[in-house]
Amino acid sequence: MTGSDAPPSFRLAYVPGVIPAKWVRIWQERLPDIPLELVMATAADAPGMLRALDADAGFVRLPIDRTDLSAIPLYTETTVVVVPKDHLMAAAEEVSVGDLADNVVFHPLDDTLDWEEFPGRPAIERPATTADAIELVAAGVGLLVVPQSLARLHHRKDLTYRTVVDAPQSRVALSWREDTTTDRVEDFIGIVRGRTVNSTRGRTQPQAQPKKQRSDEGTARRKPAAAKSSGRGSAKTPRPTAKRGKPRRRS
Question: Which H helix or E strand runs over 24?
Fold first, then answer.
């Protein structure tokens, strides 16, 4: 199909750290005639894209203003601190927020964690992005606390990360504008929630083919098995007995 005959694509926004590959693959298997277009968005910009319909649906980080957006929470990420490999914290399996107190901890402007109070000592200036903060950690200037997926996204050989057991956690959700819950949005919701292709929810599925008629349908039914005798009180056919004659007299 070309031009106006081509079906419109389904636009899916996603924030850094989210890997939508498995859901995209299932979409392509189930709806091969409808292209899926991926749109990268920052955590701050993603809700606005959905409201402006620059994307049909998107993976966002909670919390967001849900006044006119629907959201289905999907999973919660582990929070980690990114440190140089030769840092003392690299020797621990996990740390607490209190362990960060004596260290400079960066809080970039695109920070996705909902802190009540920032841990550690503040930097002179907040980095603009998480990527900028990673560079400063590599330079040995301070540490960075992020969702684990962002630590993996910005992986460097000279850095490592450890779990922060009592830090806020980032929740990832699938979101869309509430008044535009289209069939295609329902399709994607079904994929993310693990519904099978034959699920009755979402798009209307093709009518099931009628079952093949049994070969003996319409023909005479099997004859019922002969009733067994109950034994007690039932008549039995007597066996024929040979008549015995009178014994002959000896002469």
Answer: helix 21-30
